[in-house]
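Annex B, item 7. Sequence and structure tokens for protein A, then protein B.
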Amino acid sequence: MDLSKILKIRSHLRIRGNNLFIRNISLKKLSEEYGTPLYVIDAERIIDKYKEIYNSLSKHFKEFNIAYSYKANHSLSVVNLLSKLEAGATVTSYLGMELALSSGVSPSNVVLVGPSKTKEELRYAIQNNIGLTVVESYEELLSVDSIANELGLVANVGIRVNLNIKSNTHKKIATGLLTHKFGVNVNELHLLLKKCKKLNNVNLVALHSHIGSQILDLNPLKRQAIELTKLYIKSIENYNLKLNTLDFGGGVGVPYLIRKSYITYEDYAKVISTEMKALLKNKNLEEPKIIVEPGRYIVADSSILLTKVNYVKKLGNKKWLLVDAGMNDFMRVALYDAYHEILPVEKLDRKFVEKYNIGGPVCESSDVFAFNRMLPSMKSGELLAMLDVGAYGLSMANNYNIRSIPKTVMVWKDKVEVAREKESLEDIVKKEKVPNFIKELQLVSP
């Protein structure tokens, strides 16, 4: 285990006295004060990653919106922090729009996406002058126009195009092929463009594409930029539409596993800028506003999940560390066979000599965080830190097996505050009701 390589790309994590710290804060002390399992979010790391994206885009584009993807992590602490940085928001639901607006995001910087929006969601977006509603079918386009007409308003709309580009990522987070449910194909796009010319309550301003998440190869992202820009140019030339925005979605991945090389946002911004501007220059067209929708890239490595080893046991020829965090707390491994670095919190000067499977308390065979992971010889009561859990951790956490979603703390320099309390049974069942006919039933033996 080369700890120096792991920490090199996670500069907010440090080793002091052979123990793991997040900045200047001891993870062991956090576990003692707040218990485990425990999510720990570093606010400064989120700011650093956002600034990285902002600075990268500033070098290459005149106007842009960093519309943070709320599905990655919609914690109040996270979205309010990003709102303070004037980040936009990409959301997929009614409640997502409410959350963005209540967190201080300007309506003009909110992007509503998703392949199956309800009429109520479309109405809310139009009423609140959401900056961009991305339609994904001919029928949805007509719904937007109809609702806007009822309201006496004009809706700002983008069209999501399915470019049929393979993104070389996990099959469950790839979205850019015609076998997926997202967007319209190129032929159908032309039908929508023609229709937009005839609709009075739709203002088509953008083309949109998103080909998948956790992409670590620039080539599909480069191809996406080329193909979407070409369609943007054709839409203006062939239909005389006044488009002014290109939304490239998200997808830039993060190095969960140590790699020889990985994509930075500067790499990405440079590639899409170069390809887009070359095509526009040939047609003497002005540079459009750019929207990007990063989620994982901003929040993934900001967070750690602390968990305690309850038991160490051997079963067959395998050694198991059975911990107090479960798949309900963090779903990515069970869903996507995802890899996450897992480190001991204490005595990091020990040699990594034992091979363990690491599993949780949930009664599912899929409740395993790692197989055959090299660690020091571990004992019950010791702490482990699962790294890079800021994306799709809390946002997917649930109460399966009647378990609480963990307590969450956010750290800022030397300050620590609770960002989410651990749930009680009352919290879990407070929206439920026992029907009166059950209350009135008399106990009857079978």
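Protein B:
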Amino acid sequence: MRTRTALSTLALAGAIACGVAACASNPLLPYEPEISGAPDNFQLQATRVTNVTSTQTYSWTNTGTRATINHSTVTTGGSALLTVRDGAGVTVYSKTLAPSLSEATAVGGAGTWTIVLTLTSYSGTLNFRAQKL
């Protein structure tokens, strides 16, 4: 059984880093996103998202050179693009979130990876995971 957490340590750290004005306008907060950013395992879920246009950026430690990206997203409107960059800032993965998909990123450099979620008039349930491969 999963425990529902509105904001994880990762999200709180991101809120501190983003500045007061930017954090106050984070459009995912009303949907109580569950974000887990443990080393080698990142996951985000937000339910009942309604008509959100935003770009959210998360830092994630990947000690490997690849990751598996698992999608389990239900889109009822708009789009959600997931882009992953390796420790050197090179894009190793970019795809619209899908209902059911599991695939590997390209080979990249270990370190602090960047996960960018771009929502355009998005409605639905966001759910994806990145795990060290």
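Comment on protein B: The CA atoms of residues 31 and 101 lie 23 Å apart.
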